[in-house]
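Good morning,

Attaching, inline, the backbone tokens for the sequence recovery test we're adding to the shared suite. The designed sequence is right after.
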């Protein structure tokens, strides 16, 4: 079993016998569903795993604003523009809760953001695809937020208290995002022209597979899953969550009157799940290595935003200093 895990790059989980007394106590707490809080003792690897996952999650929320930001000025009506702006602002808020949760682990926000800007840090692969038509705003809300919710609903029960509490609020907002996205598509399909219906199908064709990739590599190729499951950072595996997403999304796809770009997608009554085709993992690994269609553009946009905002930060610091001096005088 161990040899098999090493071969596939999956990190090995220590047995109880191999743990130090502190580690064993920690694991017993986890097994008893007691939340770990910032000041509690935790193995260094647990802390580092959380910093890695929460920072990537926060970066995803922030970079995730960009594909949708692309359509704010071209939204088809005032109502749609307001909805889209509200959604994008929610994503910024999610990024901020998550950076705060990450800081409770002793990580430095500026350092982690610098890793994003140097292209070192990962963020969700999905945000490296372009948004080419208004229908993409519907498809991002429905599929991307839909996939994010499936993952995040389970993370509400993650073992680290501050992360789990951030997830509760984030999930409430994501579910509004998913509905507004689906409603955009439903309106285009039911009341739109043939050209608008074609746009919807085209958006689904382009975003379907990248949405399935959001759940990460299949379980046998996921190096972090076994340990993260043992620590209850992750409560379900990448493949379990991907299957749940497909099972709940296909009926919605049918209600829209659209199809998925997967000829192998079909209900399997014996398994009680939809079967689906092979994911193009080569494409996924290229995207997370930085070679997706929009990686460079996304990172450059974030870098520019930080540079352009320098004067605001400097002014805020100068004002705070002035107030401090005034209070001290
Ligand atoms: N993209 O061993 P695993 C959103 C990396 S929020 C890029 O399975 P793990 C809201 C992974 O980091 C979307 N990289 O890793 C929104 C690891 O690399 P490392 C974000 C990926 O951590 C909507 C390596 O591959 N959600 O969308 C991806 O156990 C609309 C091996 O993978 C979260 O971040 C990927 N898709 O499981 C915003 C949720 N998948 O670090 C705006 C929290 C894997 O070892 C608009 N995160 N990798 O070098 C998680 O649940 C987990 O981190 C997984 C990956 C499930 C993503």
């Amino acid at each position: 079993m161990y040899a098999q895990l090493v071969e596939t790059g999956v990190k090995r989980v220590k047995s109880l016998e191999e743990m130090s007394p502190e580690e064993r106590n920690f694991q017993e707490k986890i097994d008893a569903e007691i939340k770990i809080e910032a000041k509690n003792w935790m193995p260094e690897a647990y802390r580092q795993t959380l910093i890695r996952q929460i920072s990537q999650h926060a970066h995803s929320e922030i970079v995730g604003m960009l594909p949708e930001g692309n359509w704010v000025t071209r939204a088809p009506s005032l109502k749609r523009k307001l909805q889209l702006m509200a959604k994008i602002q929610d994503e910024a808020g999610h990024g901020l809760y998550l950076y705060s949760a990450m800081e409770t682990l002793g990580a430095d926000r500026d350092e982690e953001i610098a890793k994003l800007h140097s292209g070192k840090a990962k963020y969700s692969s999905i945000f490296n695809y372009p948004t080419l038509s208004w229908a993409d705003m519907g498809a991002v809300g429905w599929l991307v937020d839909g996939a994010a919710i499936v993952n995040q609903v389970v993370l509400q029960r993650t073992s680290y208290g501050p992360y789990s509490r951030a997830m509760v609020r984030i999930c409430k907002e994501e579910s509004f995002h998913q509905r507004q996205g689906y409603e955009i598509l439903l309106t285009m399909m039911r009341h739109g022209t043939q050209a608008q219906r074609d746009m919807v199908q085209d958006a689904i064709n382009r975003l379907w597979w990248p949405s399935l990739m959001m759940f990460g590599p299949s379980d046998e190729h996921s190096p972090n899953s076994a340990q993260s499951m043992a620590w209850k950072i992750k409560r379900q595996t990448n493949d379990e969550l991907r299957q749940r997403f497909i099972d709940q999304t296909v009926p919605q796809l049918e209600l829209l009157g659209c199809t998925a770009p997967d000829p192998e997608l079909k209900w399997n009554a014996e398994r009680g799940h939809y079967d689906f085709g092979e994911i193009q993992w080569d494409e996924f690994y290229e995207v997370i290595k930085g070679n997706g269609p929009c990686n460079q553009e996304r990172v450059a946009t974030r870098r520019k935003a930080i540079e352009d905002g320098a004067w605001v930060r400097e002014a805020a610091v100068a004002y705070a200093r002035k107030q401090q001096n005034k209070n001290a005088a």
